[in-house]
Amino acid sequence: MQGLFKIWDVFFNQFLTKPQLLLAVVVAIGYILLKRPWVRVLTGAIKTAVGVMILQVGAGQLTSTFRPILFAVAERYNIQGTIIDPYAGLPAALDALKEATAWVGYTIMVAFALNIVLVLLKRWTRFRAVFLTGHIMFIQSALVTWLVKYYFNMGPAGTAILAGILVGLYWTIGSHILIGPTDKVTGGAGFTLGHQQMLMDWIASKIAPKIGDPKESTETLELPSWLSFVQDNIVSVGVLMTIFMGALMLSLGSAKVQQMAGTTHWLVHILLTGLSFAVNVTIILTGVRIFVAELAISFKGVSDRLLPGAVVGVDCPAVFPYAPNAVILGFLVTTIAQIIAVGILLLVRSPILVIPGFVPLFFDGGTVGVYANAHGGWKAAVVCCFILGIVQVFGSAWAISISGMTGGWMGNFDWATIWPAVGTVLRIIASALGTGPFS
């Protein structure tokens, strides 16, 4: 029995949370069902795992580059608050769960089973998307497990079942509504997104045509000859981020920048920091191209044989290669909007302050920028990402006020809208029942 529990723990708490392994297995199964030679099965699985790991390297380096600067800005301006970033929200949730952290694996199991069942029953449910972004599945399940435990103070079975149902419905519905918009973005690549800003991606796809013209794309704008360099994605990212990061870092004062730079001159450090964004974005796009190429072919085997008509939901950088300029524009506009929103919180002396996190800025901003651009051009990308940044801050303040967590929360759009709304409903029910913090 102990051995079975060990296998259970490894599969749900480790294997299932490693997207490189999970997607590699999906690709292998797909090629097997397509009756490809074993060599093709093996190479497809390996290339998928490597592609996802390349993406993770770029994403991790981006986060590690930007996060210390945000912390320094918060310290410089004496902003004490909660960090709105998944990698601040996850440890906060696990710390709150304490000895109940193992329950997260049970929540994942219930949620994933519900997702599969709803897709299997698509004749009645109409749902076709299978959410397969492993690390996101773990982070989201951890936060919802805590919310359910916090409000209802149930044991592992009750907590996992209720949390799993909530998360499973979110995965299924969220990734399903993006099937059409993602086809528009990718030209019918055959996948959808499984991430943390799915509602805003969908909203952007609906309102963008009313804001701008998709023909006026960030990728095809006719620019003056002296601005032609921005049409090269690597150069444009390097230049824009050097300017942006330079302004942000210089607001700290040259002495602070020099302290961050160590033995490197502070001006050189700013230059290298800006250029590192171009390096890491290039790494991300390279990894995405590798694993999406394999996944698009192989998942046809899975959808044809095991889950007819199913569409796989993957990490948001999968859409970045389709509009790289929109990614950077979305990031910049979202950042500006968040800075304005945080300023408003300070101005009104809000009892709850938030510290921006890099993941919501870049991965939400970039993704929403891509969807808005595909459906309404650069004007829609600017408007939608500005709305995104404002909602991320104010919605996160709402979420923090009802979460019972300290130190971190996820600032992604869905977790600043859908989940604080769900939390508020849970709070009302718990208050009526006299459970959790109200008992």
Q: Summary?
A:
This protein has 16 helices and six strands. It has 439 residues and is mainly alpha-helical. The strands form two sheets. The chain has a three-stranded parallel beta sheet with strand order 5-1-6. Strands 2-4-3 form a three-stranded parallel beta sheet, sandwiched between helices.
Write structural notes for this entry.
The longest helix has 46 residues, at 358-403. It is built from 16 helices and 6 strands. The chain has helices at 2-15, 19-33, 38-76, 86-97, 103-120, 122-125, 134-152, 156-176, 179-186, 198-211, 233-250, 254-261, 266-305, 324-347, 358-403, 418-433, and strands at residues 82-84, 129-131, 191-193, 311-314, 354-356, 408-409. A 3-stranded parallel β-sheet has the order 5-1-6. A 3-stranded parallel β-sheet has the order 2-4-3, sandwiched between helices. The chain has 439 residues and is mainly alpha-helical. Helix content is 72%, strand content 4%. The radius of gyration is 22 Å and the shape is globular. The chain has one domain (2-428).
In the residues, how many domains can be counted? Answer: 1
Structural class category: mainly alpha
Low-pLDDT residue intervals, each spanning 5 or more residues: none
Counting H and I runs of at least 4 residues, what is the number of helices? 16
**What is the β-strand count?**
6
pLDDT averaged over residues: 86
Alpha carbon gyration radius: 22 Å
| Largest beta sheet: strand ordering | 5-1-6
Map the helices and strands.
Layout: H1 2-15, H2 19-33, H3 38-76, E1 82-84, H4 86-97, H5 103-120, H6 122-125, E2 129-131, H7 134-152, H8 156-176, H9 179-186, E3 191-193, H10 198-211, H11 233-250, H12 254-261, H13 266-305, E4 311-314, H14 324-347, E5 354-356, H15 358-403, E6 408-409, H16 418-433
Parallel strand pairs: 1-5, 1-6, 2-4, 3-4
Helix pairs in contact: 2-3, 2-13, 3-13, 4-7, 5-7, 5-8, 7-8, 7-16, 9-15, 10-15, 11-13, 11-14, 12-13, 14-15, 15-16
